[in-house]
Amino acid sequence: MKRKSLLSLFCVGTCIAIVGCSGKQAQNLSTENGYVDYSEITTQVQIENESKNKSNHISMELCENVKVDANVKVPDGFSGSAYRYDAYVAPFTLENILPLFELDEKDVEKLSENLYRYQDTFFEISNDICGSLVINTESVDYYYKYNSDYLEACTDMIDFGENKELAFKKSELVKTEVCEKLKSIGINNVVVKHIYALPVEYHQYIEKTYIESGMMEENKQLGERWNSIGDCYEIVLTTEIDGIPIFEDTYVAEDDTAFNGGKIQILFSEEGIKYLNAPNQYRIREQEYEIVNVLGNEEILDVIKNKMTSIILTDTYTVTELELCYLPQIINKQLGDFWMLPVWNVTLIASDGTSINYLFRADNGEEIQW
Hints:
By secondary structure, the chain is mainly β. It has helices at about 95, 170-185, 200-210, 225-230, 295-310; strands spanning about 1-5, 15-20, 35, 55-65, 65-75, 80-90, 110, 115-120, 120-125, 130-135, 160, 190-200, 230-240, 245, 250, 260, 265-270, 270-280, 280-295, 315-330, 335-350, 355-360, 365-370.
């Protein structure tokens, strides 16, 4: 279990990109728009699965202090089964990221083994199994990421927040452009999870609160200079296999080694991409897989009920989302071998607004510590 931080932390090596599979699917799971909430499904693998997954929303009392008011997210046409794939990590190279900025290798200056520069843009490539690609421009140092703590204080900012619009470009056009650029460097099957509009006023407000709290010296503030820097969008994405998204967050293995989740983070201004953090790509071995039957709604709710009744609750909780995901699990660190394991990602919200996530194996309900 982990509590989601209220501050957005951008760390090297916290995300993953997936090169999607082709023909091997439990059935036609891939969709143009990624995963969707489902209503009624047609079972193709097992007749009994027909009764397991029929509702796209569940509302009920689960147990003392816990209720369910949740969307259930699985791929369109989900059959009740999924594949457990074998996978490995394929790192980025300078050659395959240069198309992002329409550059040639001769245009780029090498600063160190893993660090390159073109004008005010820096490319950092780390090649290990926990590595990533990080692209920074100098102006990204000014921007503040989305922080839900400021929602109430910023309610008067009509263009601030999730799925809001900024004047320089419509959010749908930004999402399309970002996905195309990721595709140009080999990151396919991308799903936009969130897009946040961050206007100049938002950055100025955060700057003001930092000064008032002593976190920033007054002479360091940009103030009106923000108007020349401009608004930006923050886009959070992941990639998917067979229409099932990769779990976003980093997880820690039994030996305390941290491995990437599926999160890709981008800051996008009127000038284009100002920041990108994308992990090294997981690639599946399509010939090495196992079909697993996925626990249905009632079964996973029983798992959650058993979990919540086994602990002492000092607050009330609401289960708000059940999402079928793939979790990359290391099976041989030296060889860089992983499993892509189907899991249920369960989100609960406490009465104070704190978000908690549990991961359970989708085939047997075993909790995965992360």
